Each structure stands twice: as structure tokens, then as C-alpha cells.
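TL;DR need C-alpha cells for one chain.
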Amino acid sequence: MESNSTRIAKIATRMAICEREEENELKKIYSEKGIKVTAVNIGGNINTSISKILESALVASKRNGLIREEHLHEGAVIGATRDAIIQVENRASGQNVGGKIGIARGGEHISVCIFLSIGLLHLDEVVIGIGHRSLPR
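>> reply
TL;DR here they are.
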């Protein structure tokens, strides 16, 4: 099934915002459409968690078969994840965050979405970032 970048980005976003209990059901639904997905919870101080976020996205992508263990594939996930981090980093800088990374791969497209809640006393802020790369099948 041919997929376009917009559709894959929407699916990555859906994975990032869904409840943990929904993930397996969504994996099954998207798998039937030829789209591989995964999600991983993240949290902590954003400034000290960047390398952990990158690592989590990479490990989840490999474990769930979204990418092969090749330099090109790993670089695509890291690049898309860094793009998403850059989009959320300014608003979350120095703050404790909690949220999820959603990753989707369909055809040549892979998208990484980061959805975070930023703890500010009792006033939670929400931020979202997304990155995309193209990969050979």
C-alpha cells in the first residue's frame, strides 16, 4: 500500500497521543494496512533527557521492525526525532516533562511525533513536535 508523508505523520501523531492500552489495537489496525507503528513513554527534565529520547526512538523502531539495523535507517530515525525535539525544546527547556513518542513507517516515509505535558505547578502546558524522513523500502 502506497502511503504519503501527511498520512504517516498523522498516524505517528495518533500513536503519540493514544493511551498505552490502545497501542496494541492500533498496531494491529495499521499493520493490516501495511503501516508499522510503535510508541514509547518518555519523561524527565527535557535538557538532560535528549539523548535518552533519541535512544528510545531508535530502539523502539528497531524492536518493532520499522527500520533495519543499517546506518541509513538509524540516521533517518535519529534525524526525524531530533527535528521533533527541536520543535518542543524551546517551550519545555529546563522543565520536567512527561509524554510519548509515536513513530510510524509506511512505504518510504517515517515520521516521529513527540507529545509532551510540561509540568508547571498545577498548570500543565502541552507541546507537540513532529519530524519526517524518507527511506528506501
